[in-house]
Fold this sequence. Notes:
This protein is an alpha/beta fold. The protein is built from eleven helices and twelve strands. 31% of the residues lie in helices and 24% in strands. Helix 6 links the parallel strand 7 (178-182) and strand 8.
Amino acid sequence: xxxxxxxxxxxxxxxxxxxxxxxLQRQVGAVHAVDGITFDIQKGETFGLVGESGxxxxxxxxxxxxxxxxxxxxxxxxxxxxxxxxxxxMRKLRSRMQMIFQDPYASLNPRMTVKDIVAEPAxxxxxxTWKQSEEFVSELLETVQLNPSFVRRFPHEFSGGQRQRIxxxxxxxxxxxxxxxxxxxxxxDVSVQAxxxxxxxxxxxxxxxxxxxxxxxxxxxxxxSDRVGVMYLGVMAELAECDELYENPMxxxxxxxxxxxxxxxxxxxxxxxxxxxxxxxxxxVNPPSGCRFRTRCSLAAEQCAxxxxxxxxxxxxxxxxxxxx
Length: 325
């Protein structure tokens, strides 16, 4: 976290999905999934990205890996401008950038054994041969705290927590520098969530892996993250060091989110004021003018409808996009 050059720099990232209608499939609009966000991630850091469902967190992660092509903006990984790479160059770079998917049931091929699922990326990238795959996968299963004898089993024979560990083993098979964790615990039982998060932390200490941790569980994000970014309807609302964000939130949306997190102290919980947001999240097809949050904000004024708030640094390392922060 002390290096001057971030491992990942995202500047003005935009991802719009076109909407086509009619016989000629003309474009009649676009879903503004990600609309100009800027942040960086230092080597060895865990950067938490939080927000409501549908705010663009997962799209951001997939666009960084170019699983979706960015509409605009720049993504720089270890000094390499990702959007300028050819498909073949991107394929080689992907060995350094991996993803753990949200749904452990949908992200594993049901027709493949654990050995084939975990070894395939390493074989494709020329790290091992199929002859070496059984020993290679057995070692990885031990690393993620699964029995090495499971190599010949199929995904349906495992629980959700075990499947997610297989997904983690697959991501580790290429020895990546950077892993995007796309809500890796949201589909798991609460009893298993802590085990998976502890495993991710152990792996980070062992191999100095950098994480982008996407989630909407604010308590878990606080536990695992060094810095946290808060997204709302495709834009970044606030970004700060973890403790700073939780103790001194500046954006009205962040304050509302944090007011919903239960505190394990009855006396404190009694005194806390819960901020209830009115109305629904606007459609990303036709987002509000100016500030995206103004339709649900108690501080909203005329300026908020006319001007998009500037993404600015209010105190060292604490960024916010609000006219009144």
